Input
Amino acid sequence: MQTTAVGEYGAARSRLYGAGVSAENTRGNNSLLDRVRLLQVDLADGQARAAEVNANRVYEVLRTQGINADRTVASVVFGEGVRYWKGEPFEQALAYTYIAVQKAMIGDWGNARAAAEGSLFLLRDFGENERGRRLSQRELAERAARAGDRYLESYEVRDSDFALGYFLSGVASLAIGDQTGASERLAEAVALRPDLADAVEALHRGEANTILIVDYGLAPTKIATGPSGAISDYSVNTWSDQSAMRVTVDGREAGRFPIAADVNAMAADHSWRNLEDVRVAKAIIGQGLVATGAVVAATADDDQAQLVGLGLILAGLATSATASADTRHNELLPQRVYVAAVGVTEPDSTVRIEAGGRESASMTLLGVDPPSGERFQLRYVRMNAPGAMARWASSKQVYYRSDSYDGALASLDSGASSGGAPSGGEALGDLPYILGGQDVSTPTHEALARYQAAGYLRGYTLNDLTNLYREERITLTTEEQGGAAARHILEGGSSLVAPLAGTAGFARLFQTPHPVYRARSELVRRVAREQRALLEPYGSP
Output
């Protein structure tokens, strides 16, 4: 979790891969939980297309297994003799939203709506206690112990109060032209969170074309409490508050936007918790069985009754011994999720986000363009943990050209934006990174023409250029990476697949300088020396 909290998504992904986590690996009872973690890391890193296969696999499991007859969700499913953990209901709802986000980021709004709708499953409601507060897991356990197993079937079924799911479904409906469906879902979101009204109005009026889904803070930690550690509870890491998120676009105020989901509050509400904490009651009931069995055994008049009492004792001991709560949880979830709807009208725009309350965090997103050929675009932004702000998060310069950015570059030596008279920084912007430059675009005819116009790689064909990357064993597409994301060459990896602009992944890779590339092959080392020699007139040998 530490690497993710500080925005080191390449390292976080490598650790997940090292632990055997992948879209294809469905073995082990934590496989779904692990794949949701991987999905979150890929989205935070701006690798939405690379997350496609994994998102689809997660969706299949969530949708086709563990749905109860009353359309509430189960937290555990069985398959091939293995007990699979699906997460608490609130974790499942958030997993659906990450799938919806993945679909929206690649412009697949129809499937984005389907995933968002999946997050709106019905909830169990056991009501409130005598003080007018929602019943806690412990109170449910105590009542179940007194009233018997049937108590846990006495809940009412109610509609979801997940405003984030309604909002995402409404936006997706707008994107595909379903005005009626959009109006209904967005109205439901506003009914639950009235402070969403401004964002919804901006969408309806056509003033917003860019949706920001922003994760902030650390999710609560699941712990075992109560008798025999049988009751699960959550310990807060980032405190809840109602602080708005401030967004500016190119220095202009775009608005203050609300929290659409408070994970602390969801984790504390029994409607968003599972009934697998019948284990909760099991410890208490188990202790009761021991006591009852002892009384029967001590007062019995015949051997048969004593044997019954002994059986009750053993049953009670066995129940207590297995009563420990399941504390598996998704520690990569945020404490809160913000939503914003803003207008981006100019290419290469700068979007700045300031989120949080007592411990605020900010991020500057450079190189954001308006939507291309669509009404909306969506970007997911994961803020670094409070107090863990990296330099790249506040950078005002882009240092590398890529498939997702073709704007002005900052000089690596001066840190100032290149322009005007030729400088070492400007010359490096039209030279591939593997040859000592600042361009990490994939090899194309357009890229080669740009290099050659700057005086580099004269006489090279596209095949020649591509072979330089092949010599270095660098992957150029997601397909070459088995349909998954991989570590970028700027961070010591072997991938040239660029993250989307407007994400933390773009910021961490392209908004800060990186060490010069160290070639593996003799061919690339030789070509790099030849091309760098051309920089001598600009003062950069």
